[in-house]
Design brief:
The complex is a heterodimer of chains A (about 775) and B (about 160).
Chain A: E1 6-8, H1 28-33, E2 48-54, E3 60-66, H2 68-72, E4 76-81, E5 90-91, E6 103-105, E7 111-112, E8 118-124, H3 127-136, E9 138-143, H4 150-154, E10 175-179, H5 182-188, E11 191-199, E12 211-216, E13 222-226, H6 231-242, E14 249-252, H7 269-280, E15 284-287, H8 290-295, E16 303-311, E17 317-329, H9 335-345, E18 355-363, H10 377-395, H11 399-406, H12 424-436, H13 438-443, E19 451-464, E20 474-480, E21 486-490, H14 499-511, E22 518-521, H15 539-565, E23 573-576, E24 579-582, E25 589-591, H16 592-596, E26 607-613, E27 618-631, E28 637-647, H17 654-673, E29 704-705, E30 708-710, H18 728-745, E31 751-752, H19 756-771
Parallel strand pairs in A: 1-30, 2-15, 11-31, 13-14, 17-18, 21-22, 28-29, 28-30
Antiparallel strand pairs in A: 2-8, 3-7, 3-9, 4-8, 5-6, 10-18, 11-16, 12-13, 12-15, 16-17, 19-27, 20-21, 20-26, 23-24, 24-25, 27-28
Chain B: E1 2-9, E2 12-19, H1 24-31, E3 50-53, E4 56-59, E5 72-74, H2 88-96, H3 105-118, H4 124-130, H5 142-158
Parallel strand pairs in B: 1-5
Antiparallel strand pairs in B: 1-2, 3-4, 3-5
């Protein structure tokens, strides 16, 4: 069928009937026929349309807001300003993580902290009237100094953007991670490399703009359809800020059009939409334009990484020191989590016993940085892997061999403090080298033509689940119906990855029923059990394990119930292909519908299993090969081919897993070569909030991708050994490309994105240096 | 001031009362209750709203509803030959994993339909060129290209093109 992805089944201690097969995804018929309902498709009788008034200044106090002209406009039903909404300090990133949550947001404040922050909202009978009313709202500002860079904001003399008492506009106190003796390590080094890496501001640019619809019923209960990865977080934060109990807030997410991490936050719109609906007594829809999705959305954290490492002549890393500084933008959002995770990641990937790391996150008056696939690790491993390439050359090693020599191995301490399971990274690097004939390609002639080719390898590892930063929990309920079919009720959100299909496969496997016998109920906080949300590469790992536990509970009940019918002990029974069978080979069996259905006029037995899972941590690994072609006349870099090798434990659905890898590579090519959301450093204005000006790799830019998945290090914590895959690909591709550019033109860049202009300038500088 | 616009949508005659500045996209989604066509940018950059108008693919957000007077419009909702039978493109997108979050999918499938109507045997480059105005942020395009190519093969084999 599919010609691209290949799975190496190195470990097959048991045969699977459903797991590991690319069954037909349960959500795709609706998607390909246009029937899938996204939040923006919800239309209710009498529905009003809401729009947000956004600031045209980056840092100011609001002196006054005059809404009279807006309210006087025919068709306008309500206007809200900071004077009309509850003033409750809340977290933009509402996870229950005591260590890394920053309560620094109000629904609307009397102060604005970035250009484009919401200052008022209007509900009207049409979107057009709402937009006209927004233009009629007059806001008078008292400007405050705009602090747009890390340097400006972290100056001790700079005014605080938030009064959190930390000084220097810290979002959180600096993070320190120390292992071993770094000074001693540097003393033993034969080679020391020290560099600063500069990181741009890519954004997730999910296709579905942020949107929500609110409706209150006669009992004071709010129903909200919204595009979120964490429905229960939205419910909790809405309840807390609006002052209503949890059973009076119902959040519904049928389908969502991508999130890539960012849609864990609330974006002012959920509160304002709900309050406008309450004020007017009518349902209200609030949909962001694409421009608003950029301006009011969340980006990856831009920043700087200063990295210094000591190496010995025989190729060991004896000391690693780093200072990671991230720009959080106007609010904390995921700043604490990203800083902790990104900084701690530098303890690992390539072995080094002596490590001293510092992580900082700084408020600035720029758009909010939040969670985005790769979560701080994209940034720090870009720096680490680029320096490995440089060190390999200086020490006379092949870069792939050098990475292989230093790759983390089984039992090494991972960033989370857990011992690593298996030799996943080693396996990935080896497989990339075999698959691409690495050494042969490296020996290839390099003619000094206009277009020059180069190859590179980039590596990564990433945790499934956010432990220990967050103690996570996933829950599932599995019911077996009296005809032997199964209903899975899961809290796991459907981000578009195919998670519900994977969960159904796991349940089918556990219960011994065909995949088609399992249906899924999801996406409604009134019905499904609590779930922390879809992020941290954990939906299959966490939600899948919870579903497996619930299914195992049902299986136990089924066997207990069927045992007397088959005159056997429950321990001698199994379920296979929809039959309860006696495992001793006596050929006795009972169709599931007969085993659990109504008997002699008596109602069927109730079979309900509950699974709760609180994971710790596992790590997935990848090594990516990239071949690029650099046009030395235009500076353009074309990625010709990518060969990603991923070790992700047991693969539940190969096509869906490969889809994650290929999509992550697309976004990673973007941030490495073209994607940068640019802020005017004089006034904080967004300069490219559109798909025309924010350049993403599209169908013509994307190379062929030869995806290889290996299963050499299944994790005992995941269902059937499955680990995460969502974030891994976006981390490894960046360094693979940057290293390939060096191989092509002999220029090492220490930043992203690497634009054609910079390539040309660097080539010019290099030519001048050669001439001298 | 609204105006009555008559068009054919998925083979059915259809009269919509719309403002003169209403886009075809908003008219289809709101007055037409056909929400399968998606709004990703509303300014013609992303292709999520691609529909076929008189045989040619258009961004419905760049066409005024009034301009569609008398036109034949095809949307994703009209693609299935029967309610219980997906179109070959829909089938292949499911098989090959061409849809992830699904938000760009209706637009991409309509663009691919327009391509295959015109060119039953497109090369990979031709498929990539045809989809150059359709942004997908989930898949890396690999599986979309595979799905379109496989559809073309199947349709050629079945002789329906």
């Amino acid at each position: 069928m599919n010609t691209h992805e290949r799975i190496d089944r190195d470990l097959s201690e048991r045969d699977f009937t459903v797991v590991g097969k690319s069954v037909k995804r349960s959500d795709t018929l609706e998607k390909v026929t246009g029937a899938a309902r996204y939040a923006g498709d919800v239309a209710l009788p009498g529905m009003l349309y809401a729009k947000m008034k956004r600031s045209n200044i980056a840092h100011a106090r609001i002196k006054s807001i005059d809404t009279s002209k807006a309210l006087a406009l025919q068709g306008v039903k309500a206007v809200l300003t900071h004077q009309d909404v509850p003033r409750v300090l809340h977290a933009g990133s509402p996870h229950p993580r005591s260590a890394s949550v920053t309560k620094d947001q109000y629904i609307l404040d009397e102060r604005v902290r970035y250009w484009g922050e919401g200052v008022a909202a209007v509900a009207a009978v049409s979107e057009e009237i709402a937009e006209r009313a927004v233009a009629l709202i007059e806001v008078e500002y008292d400007p405050l100094p705009g602090l747009f860079t890390i340097e400006a904001a972290s100056d001790p003399a700079a005014p605080p953007i938030h009064e959190n008492g930390l000084g220097q506009n810290y979002v959180l106190p600096p993070v320190f991670v120390t292992r071993g003796d770094v000074d001693k390590g540097f003393g033993e080094a034969d080679l020391v490399i020290e560099r600063e890496y500069d990181l741009g501001r890519p954004t997730p640019a999910y296709m579905e703009p942020n949107v929500c619809v609110s409706q209150w019923d006669g009992n004071g209960k709010l129903t909200m359809w919204t595009s979120t990865q964490s429905a229960f977080m939205v419910r909790g934060t809405l309840a807390e800020v609006l002052g209503v109990p949890l059973n009076k807030v119902r959040v519904i997410v049928d389908h969502m059009g991508g999130g890539f991490g960012a849609k864990q936050d609330l974006f002012q719109n959920e509160f304002l939409c709900a309050l406008l609906a309450r004020r007017t007594g009518r349902p209200v829809k609030m949909e962001f334009s694409r421009k608003e999705t950029f301006v009011g959305g969340r980006s990856r954290h831009p920043g700087k990484i200063w990295l210094k490492q000591g190496f010995t002549r025989d190729g060991r890393i004896v000391a690693r020191e780093a200072r990671v500084t991230f720009n959080s933008g106007a609010y904390g959002s995921h700043g604490p989590g990203v800083t902790n995770v990104g900084t701690a990641a530098l303890t690992s990937l390539y072995r080094c016993e002596n490590v001293r790391l510092e992580g900082r996150c700084i408020y600035t008056n720029s758009p909010i940085a939040g969670a985005f696939r790769g979560y701080g690790v994209v940034q720090t491993y870009y720096a680490l892997d680029l320096m490995m390439d440089e060190a390999a050359e200086k020490l006379g090693f092949d870069p792939a061999e050098f990475k292989l020599m230093n790759a983390v191995r089984e039992g090494d301490m991972a960033p989370s403090g857990h011992p690593i399971v298996g030799h996943g990274l080693v396996d990935c690097i080896r497989r990339v080298m075999e698959e691409t004939n690495w050494h042969e390609l490296r020996r290839r002639e390099k003619p000094e033509t206009v277009k020059r080719r180069g190859i590179g390898i980039g590596c990564e590892m990433h945790g499934s689940s956010a432990y220990p930063g967050i103690k996570e929990q996933g829950n599932a309920i599995v019911k077996m119906n009296e005809d032997g079919t199964v209903t899975l009720i899961t809290g796991t959100a459907g981000l578009g990855t195919g998670a519900h299909t994977a969960l159904s496969q796991i349940v089918a496997e556990e219960l011994g029923v065909p995949f088609e016998a399992v249906s899924v109920v999801q996406g409604d906080t009134d019905i499904v059990p609590w779930d922390i949300g879809a992020f941290a590469s954990h939906t299959t790992y966490l939600g899948g394990r919870a579903a497996q536990l619930a299914a195992a509970d049902v299986r136990r009940q089924v066997l207990e119930h069927a045992a007397p019918l088959l005159k056997a002990e429950p321990g001698d029974l199994a379920i296979r292909d929809g039959f309860v069978v006696v495992a001793n080979g006596s050929n006795q069996s009972l169709r599931l519908s007969e085993a659990v259905g109504p008997q002699r006029g008596m109602p069927a037995v109730q079979l309900v299993g509950v699974g709760t899972y609180m994971p710790t941590k596992s790590y997935s690994f990848a090594a990516h090969f990239a071949e690029v072609e650099v046009d030395t006349e235009t500076g353009e870099v074309a990625v010709l081919e990518v060969v990603p090798v991923h070790e992700i434990g047991r693969v539940i659905h190969p096509i869906a897993a490969a889809g994650q890898i290929e999509g992550g590579i697309q976004q990673g090519i973007g941030h490495t070569l073209s994607e940068d959301y640019v802020i005017d450093l004089t006034d904080g204005r967004s300069l490219n909030p559109s798909f025309v000006d924010y350049k993403m790799p599209l169908s013509m830019d994307m190379p062929s991708i030869r995806t290889i998945i290996i299963e050499t290090a299944p994790d005992p914590g995941g269902p059937y050994g499955a680990k995460g895959v969502g974030e891994d690909p976006i981390i490894a591709i960046g360094p693979a490309i940057a290293n390939a550019i060096y191989d092509a033109i002999g220029v090492r860049f220490h930043h992203y994105p690497i634009t054609p202009e910079q390539v040309l300038n660097a080539l010019k500088t290099k030519a001048n240096e050669t001439r001298q | 001031m609204n105006r009555l616009v008559s068009m054919t949508v998925n083979g059915e005659p259809c009269e919509l009362s719309v403002a003169l500045n209403r886009t075809l996209l908003d008219a289809l989604r709101n007055e037409g209750s056909l929400t399968g066509t998606k709004k990703g940018c509303d300014v013609g950059d992303c292709g999520a709203c691609t529909v076929i108008m008189d045989g040619r693919p258009v961004n419905a957000c760049l066409v005024l509803a009034a301009e569609a007077e008398g036109a034949a419009i095809e949307t994703i909702e009209g693609l299935q030959p029967a309610y219980d039978k997906p179109h070959a493109l829909q089938q292949k997108f499911m098989e090959f994993g061409g849809a992830q979050c699904g938000f760009c999918t209706p637009g991409i499938i309509m663009m691919a339909k327009a391509l295959l109507d015109e060119n039953p045997d497109p090369s990979e480059d031709e498929i990539r060129f045809a989809l150059a105005g359709n942004i997908c942020r989930c898949t890396g395009y690999t599986k979309i290209i595979d799905a379109v190519r496989a559809t073309a093969e199947e349709l050629r084999r079945a002789g329906t093109l």
